Request: fold
Amino acid sequence: MTVTAPESAACDQPRARTLLIDVDVHPLFLPRDIIPRLPEPWRTRYANENSGRGTRVVRDYPRWRNGGFRIDAAVPGGGPAGSDLGVLRSQLLEEYDTDIAVLIPLTFALEGPAAYKAALCRAINDWLAEEWLDRDPRLRGSINVPFDSPDLAVAEIERFATDPRFVQVMVRGDTQSEWGDRKYWPVYAACEAADFVAMCHVGGEPGNRYRGSGAPSYYLEQHVWLHMPVERLAMSMICEGVFDEFPRLQVALVEACLTWSGPLQWAMDAAYEVAGNDAPRLRKLPSEYFRGHFWLSTQPIEEPDNPRHLVQSIEFAQMTERVMFSSDYPHWDFDSPVKALPAAMPADMRGKIMGENAARLYAKRLGRR
Amino acid sequence: MRVVVGKVSDFANGDRKIIDVNGKSVGVFRIDDRFYALRNRCPHQFGPLCAGTLAPRAISDGPGDVKMDSGPPLLACPWHGWEYDIATGQSFMGPGRGNMAARAYDVSVLPGSELAQAQGRQGWPEGRVPGPYVAETVPVSVEQDYVVVDDSPARRSRPSGNEALA
Reply:
């Protein structure tokens, strides 16, 4: 396998150590970053949203550790964690000698008229490109799109289709319809055409719309349930025929844990055996679609009492080639590249997870830089 | 390697300093009239432990009855929040896991906990149950007006502990 080395890490000598690609890193935008990049009337609307009662934040349940951030990631001299490239360079890229970090700017709330959401996504994407991706060749970006307005989402994807700084499109966790719905197919078509990965990272959407009964009472619940909406996403996309229509489309499920993926495949296949004609779009075993199109990330890594059980769960799921390391920097549940994977993990699996698998998933976009 | 951290008078109650000792980052804390020193590395995922929050442990016998336990304060790692007794480095989160699963983790069992027991501590304060991790303690002493940490192997084996009176 060949990997295009990022410019800054390009050494005269071949690298002896493991390739490290971190697929979940969160830069934080502040109103000062967005307001100058928004046209009116949306600038005023956004300014109003972020004044008076303050920035809109999720208040359903308090995050139990430091507002959800590593204490030591706060910007010296003032500024919240994730808002400064210099701190991220020092604490992540240089601390761990990261080859590539994939930036995911989360927009927990993305509400309002479609044109406003589109303008906001455009401003966020421009901020990411100008303030982060242009300033460090180890960084790659994820495109925010107004997912429930597919025509506007496609326009934003096409704006970056040939831009080597971006590697994927963000599929929202709070879609108004199930993810396999045909209305989203133009978005998937645009992703496939540009070799963009479709990436879903659920988290703190207000009210947690991806669950009909609303938000849980405790952050503990929210913190460990992130695999639930993406299991639904996987089943919906498989059963609705998305991958039959877009056979090259690849989907990354980030910050959604690992160990569920084997049991989901077993259960889908068992149901298909007895009721396959209930989902007539299926042309092969659901597990074959899953292992042909989905990728997982490690953080928050499950820590069973016996660490071998984690390794076995990846083997049972036959996902050794499709699990990617993620740190979630600078959030409180950051996983360290040097300590997160258990010592019990075999070296070849470790090497794949730490970077080789992500290099394969993102190869076509990484090769453009 | 002996390193003078500073004068006792440089430390107000609650102050901490993070210093380099023999290539290791070490945190030195003053709490009331005692000094403590711990390696600035959480055994869980190597987070910068000494940048974390210090707090006593709240205990309760029932609704409406809350008090702070009498043990040394707990230091919470600024990442995942694993909490450590600042005097011994013993963690008290994940109770019970330490007994059966300690070998599954990269645990560093260091003299601090043994020293504390040698000094007459029977068990842990107020019914605390040890967790799986032990943070690395570093000997600290007060010599005349100066706070000194000592990371030399010989010094570490002496029962001076990582706790010193101002």
In short: The interface with chain A takes residues 44-48, 51-53, 78-81, 97, 100-101, 104, 106 of chain B (CB under 8 Å).
